[in-house]
Design a protein that fits this description.
tRNA-binding; RNA-binding; single chain; 6 helices; four-stranded antiparallel sheet; about 30% helix; five-stranded mixed sheet; globular; RNase_PH_bac-type
Length: about 240
């Protein structure tokens, strides 16, 4: 069992999609997400002529990424609200990473496909997508457009329960997330190359699932989450150095 402030083991396998400008398979415990970055010399019609770039995302879960088979959303004819919410979160989070003016009139599309889900899929997607994005910029000689490093982690409060840890928990597995009294997702950033900096908050999604929570608890959750994001950022840099 992990210590209270420990994340699950995170690992990145880069270059797994040979045709993508940047790609990685991120493994966060038993949550595995395939992330790719496609860089195109075009922008959406509504952005043409502005001299600036754009970053967007698509997210999906494969049918047997969960305990029981989920039908593909394409077969249903529409995306679920959760899918739309998560891919918008990924897109706006990763737009924090890039100087869009230096990117020029180019679009980066980040595809995040969940192979195995055991909690924290959106956080793993953001963390892995940053690695894919950084590799794509490097492949096209656009490293100067990389402004910030971005990662994300879940954090929550668990009450007493059979076989479960309790208190403030970092990087929740499915069973922990499912039973959490308070459930949060934190996205953070720090300037590229500034490894000594404490990450800043990009987005903090928090919900009292089983009870409300205090201001003091919210600050404790933020501090714990920022520690987790910083550890993921160190792992990201190690993956980029090995690629």
């Amino acid at each position: 069992m992990r210590l209270q402030g420990e994340t699950r083991r995170i690992a990145f396998e880069t270059g797994v999609q040979v045709h993508a400008e940047g790609s990685c398979l991120v493994r966060l415990g038993n949550t595995h997400v395939l992330c790719s970055a496609s860089l195109e010399d075009r922008v959406p019609d509504w952005m043409k002529g502005r001299g600036t770039g754009w970053i967007t995302s698509e997210y999906g879960m494969l049918p047997r990424s969960t305990h029981t088979r989920n039908a593909r959303e394409a077969a249903k004819g529409r995306q679920q609200g959760r899918t739309v919410e998560i891919q918008r979160l990924i897109g706006r989070s990763l737009r924090q990473a890039v100087d869009l003016a230096r990117l020029g009139e180019r679009q980066l599309t980040l595809d995040c496909d969940v192979l195995n889900a055991d909690g924290g899929t959106r956080c793993a997607s953001i963390t892995g997508a940053w690695v894919a994005l950084a590799l794509a910029l490097k492949a096209r000689g656009l490293e100067s457009a990389l402004k910030n490093q971005v990662s994300a982690v879940s954090v929550g409060i668990l009450e007493a329960g059979p076989g479960l840890r309790q208190g403030l928990i970092l990087d929740l597995e499915y069973e922990e997330d499912h039973r959490a009294a308070v459930d949060c997702n934190l996205v953070a950033s720090r300037p590229a190359g500034r490894v000594e900096d404490v990450p800043d908050i990009v987005e903090f999604q928090s919900t009292g699932e089983g009870r409300s929570f205090t201001r003091a608890e919210a600050l404790d959750l933020l501090d714990l989450g920022l520690t987790g994001c910083a550890s993921f950022m160190d792992a990201q840099l190690e993956a980029i150095a090995r690629a």
